[in-house]
Amino acid sequence: MAQLDPAILEALAAIVGETRVLTDESSCEQYGLDWTRFYTPAPSAVLLPGSIEEVQAIVRLAADQNLAIVPSGGRTGLSAGAVAANGELVLALDRLNTLSDFNLVDRTVRCGAGVITEQLQQFAEEQGLYYPVDFASAGSSQIGGNISTNAGGIKVIKHGMTRDWVAGLKLVTGTGELLDLNRGLMKNNAGYDLRQLAIGAEGTLGVVVEATMSLTRTPENLAVLVLGAPDMQAIMHVLTAFQAEIELSAFEFFSEIALEKVVAHQDLQRPFETVCDYYALIEFEQPNDAAMEKAMALFEHCVEQGWVYDGTVSQSLSQAQNLWRLREDISETITPWTPYKNDISTVISRVPEFLAEVEAVVNQNYPDFEIVWFGHIGDGNVHLNILKPEGLPIDEFKAQCGEVSTWVFEIVQRYGGSVSAEHGVGLLKKEYLEYSRSALEIEIMKGIKQVFDPKGIMNPGKIFDA
Amino acid sequence: MAQLDPAILEALAAIVGETRVLTDESSCEQYGLDWTRFYTPAPSAVLLPGSIEEVQAIVRLAADQNLAIVPSGGRTGLSAGAVAANGELVLALDRLNTLSDFNLVDRTVRCGAGVITEQLQQFAEEQGLYYPVDFASAGSSQIGGNISTNAGGIKVIKHGMTRDWVAGLKLVTGTGELLDLNRGLMKNNAGYDLRQLAIGAEGTLGVVVEATMSLTRTPENLAVLVLGAPDMQAIMHVLTAFQAEIELSAFEFFSEIALEKVVAHQDLQRPFETVCDYYALIEFEQPNDAAMEKAMALFEHCVEQGWVYDGTVSQSLSQAQNLWRLREDISETITPWTPYKNDISTVISRVPEFLAEVEAVVNQNYPDFEIVWFGHIGDGNVHLNILKPEGLPIDEFKAQCGEVSTWVFEIVQRYGGSVSAEHGVGLLKKEYLEYSRSALEIEIMKGIKQVFDPKGIMNPGKIFDA
């Protein structure tokens, strides 16, 4: 473990209190790693500030002493954006976990960076409102981290990413100064929108310490439809047909292999008997009978066109939840196969050919690899999962998957896609950033980091090397 | 008029062709001014490039020769963002007016910067889709300009600003390099979202030359409801009640004085006999009878609560259009009074007290000033209009309004509001920027400009002085 000068430890303790400076091995391991694994945590200390002023004081001290800081939320990230492997100070926002200043007219609430996503969702529900950004780690991830990775999830097609729900943002820059950006305004065209830069910056421009989050109307009687389709192109036709007439809140997809595994390993039934190559899960509001009639007419149209072979619709909340599990339980189901995972996107219309190209190159080189596809097809974001063949040593599998990554990212580049649709870049995808961003873009990003963080102490080495 | 070195004029002609370099007085007047007026246009030349490559060549030449460039769209701006008053080169994007690469699955279309807003709206309609950003100058404003000022308008409450419809953006930086940002992706968390910076930058970071714009589902059978309320606080209650149950596409307001003038000067009738202090115009989709039943139940609830005194609902498209004119014709109606105008915002909930404070200070100091309020109350954006009293010389009125501006912006600052909700800063509001943005924010903006435009040739003097 990296050692800090005792005088610095003392100065840090003077800021946050002695019990809020952790240097024991277990704390350093816990706070030095996110859900990415693969890395060895090695922070020099973990700090738990209790106020924005304490965060500022820590950053000023770190700037003065040239100490690197890793801002730390729920550490549920999957690109190692919150990993501290090089003696950094971990600045954990856990204690800034207050919800305050709720306003029903503005439909906003002020959140400390350490507020858990689920805490915000539940708070919204108690007010008769809704926070629509939702994903598997909502029970652990924190708002500050969500903002820093611009978290997406399963409702993006209607509700957008975390970016769309940040009405105000407080950021402590690399010099310890506080920016109070946009202050909850819905309309503000007075100069550059710096808030947008901090969103998705993975802590490299400063520490997100607080946000004013927007809430919205609670959806009415959500219905879920699962359809089976002969191929990906048919899925795209279904998407286009439904979107033309209904405001969908989700349009997810998964493959037959994914469905087989989920049904075999969870306490779930197939949605219908017909076996299809791909399935779409469609969610929409059903405030009255007319909405369902419209959906059923669309379903029949899709069947007539040959785009859909079979389908089922939820008749109750519990049925809707069970249909959702067919999609949501895939990730957990395949964990025992220690899958290689990749989170990529293209424009929506090119997903079918993109999938086919990736499959072709993997099948050609590694015919025994089993590919499990699922994802948010309605927004072009697919999750590629390759299961480790039984008997293949894990190290060998990982080495082969390294090769796969390069092929996949070369295809992503040719399609003008993104090497990270929603998980961010962090350490994990840093070396692949150039497949999605030009040399000039990366140079400009570095220039912008220099403006916010002249000493380069904010989460250094994440996204790019300075 | 500013004179350019003949060798430079020749070099510019070699790039765009001789007939695309205009230096005659009438062209310079036309292209040197936007709808703000007040300024004396004095560009050194007007250039009409026909391709992105030509734009790049012009910018490279300008950077080499240290010549300032003013990017120019429809010049419908109201903050003098497109004014060329200091011998700048006007780079007019008129000829980059092609719509291409429409994709029905992605629901996107590629637009040259010079595409007129209405052209995009009509194109969308022809494809059975909808471009929802709409405002009074849609017949002249260009997409590049809309993006550069992040244009808002009358549907922001549901559809957001121009920012929300830019899926991809091509920007020529101050060094003449081309950034191809986001390429139409719905999900892309691979590094800073530089696209967001260019949106609303008023041409100070580079020239927006092309954008991939998103389109959406066409709204079904829009209904319009006009309600009369006793005061602004009641209007806020009505907003909250309706938003809790219906996805509104507009929530506008206007005062009795505004209504009186519109009815007196346009061929329009009062919506109902009851005279109220304030009126709300509410628009929503009515795909079936249930939607209208819900709206009527909400209306009755509002009447019972004493928030609404009277109301009327459109029974046909033409009735809906006439109700909209009560709000949309205000601006034109009051033009003969050469009104002082200001476009400001606060968080929505504070609008009533904000309006009261502004009225109090104006009434106290200038009791003969007539104030006309209207605006987009659903997003906190109000338009303040003060009519020139008959007999008061225009210069004296302008001087007095200068004082009013300072009072208004001091109130804006105390409310944490914006000195420019949707019109941008340009030259007109530059000196007031500090009422909405901190010294540190302005310093960071300047640092960012330096990264994109190291020579400071892109629309210098707009938003801030470098």
Automatic annotation (TrEMBL), chains A, B:
One GO MF term: (R)-2-hydroxyglutarate dehydrogenase activity
UniProt KW keywords: FAD, Flavoprotein, Metal-binding, Oxidoreductase, Zinc
Pfam families found in the cross-reference section: FAD-oxidase_C, FAD_binding_4
Catalytic reactions of this protein: (R)-2-hydroxyglutarate + A = 2-oxoglutarate + AH2
Residue ranges of domain FAD-binding PCMH-type in the record: 39-218
GO BP of this protein: respiratory electron transport chain
Cofactor requirements of the protein: FAD
Superkingdom in the source lineage: Bacteria
EC class of the enzyme, as a word: oxidoreductase
EC number: 1.1.99.39
Recorded family membership: Belongs to the FAD-binding oxidoreductase/transferase type 4 family.
Subunit structure and binding partners: Homodimer.
PANTHER family: D-2-HYDROXYGLUTARATE DEHYDROGENASE, MITOCHONDRIAL
UniProt protein name: D-2-hydroxyglutarate dehydrogenase
